[in-house]
Design goal:
The N terminus is likely disordered. This protein has a 6-stranded mixed beta sheet with strand order 1-2-3-4-6-5. Helix 5 packs across helix 7 and helix 7 crosses helix 8. It is 52% helix and 14% strand. The chain has one domain: Glutaredoxin, CATH 3.40.30. By secondary structure, it is α/β, with parallel strands linked by helices. The termini are far apart.
Length: 200
């Protein structure tokens, strides 16, 4: 065998490796949720979209989230999402979340590239309340909230709709748009403005 000839083992393994690599690439590009959702910290699963990272404990919780958020993008937003979609961005849930985020940016006229906001999705209100107490050491009367320090929205699928999620997204966008965060009362007024204009 000449020195320039490949070893037989390499010759036989290369096609198999390329086939496996190609298969994995096709699965990711097809938008299969099983590839987009991965274990996060041993407990959470993750679905990453263009503008957010969804964390959830089970596929049932994610399915509940999908049912509760009844929002579809307008034609312009849908076209933009199709042009930039890839991987997880092709799924219905990802498209819905990204379209809602972009609509909130449009209403606020605060369009700029931002760090992805994390959305932690809990199965019920009791679990959400437990997290609030653990974070703040007091009782909670809020149905959902946004925490700037963690850039995270906390919601429960048992008590959620697209207006609530848009409201919390507005807080995330407002808090990261300006060089100096506006007063909380100002941010709340703007977030409520989003809720009133979401479907207009």
């Amino acid at each position: 065998m000449s020195p320039s000839a490949p070893y037989p083992a390499i010759r036989t393994r290369r096609p198999l490796f390329l086939i496996l690599l190609l298969t994995a690439g096709l699965a990711v590009c097809s938008g299969d949720r099983s590839w987009a959702a991965t274990v996060y910290g041993g407990k959470w699963q993750q679905l990453e979209t263009r503008h957010a990272v969804l964390l959830f404990e089970s596929s049932e919780v994610l399915a509940g989230f999908d049912r509760q958020i009844r929002y579809r993008p307008g034609q312009d937003t849908a076209r933009e999402l199709r042009q930039t979609a890839g991987g997880a961005g092709d799924s219905d849930i990802s498209g819905k979340v990204d379209a809602l985020f972009m609509r909130v940016q449009e209403i606020l006229d605060m369009r700029r590239k931002m760090e992805k906001v994390t959305i932690k999705i809990y199965p019920d209100s009791a679990a959400l309340q437990e997290v609030y107490q653990r974070l703040f050491h007091r009782e909670n009367a809020m149905r959902a909230w946004y925490l700037f320090e963690k850039n995270t929205i906390y919601v429960s699928v048992a008590d959620l709709h697209e207006g609530m999620l848009a409201h919390e997204m507005a807080h995330a966008i407002i808090d990261h748009f300006f060089a100096v965060r506006p007063p909380s009362s100002t941010a709340e007024i703007l977030a409520r403005y989003v809720g009133k204009h979401l479907d207009k």
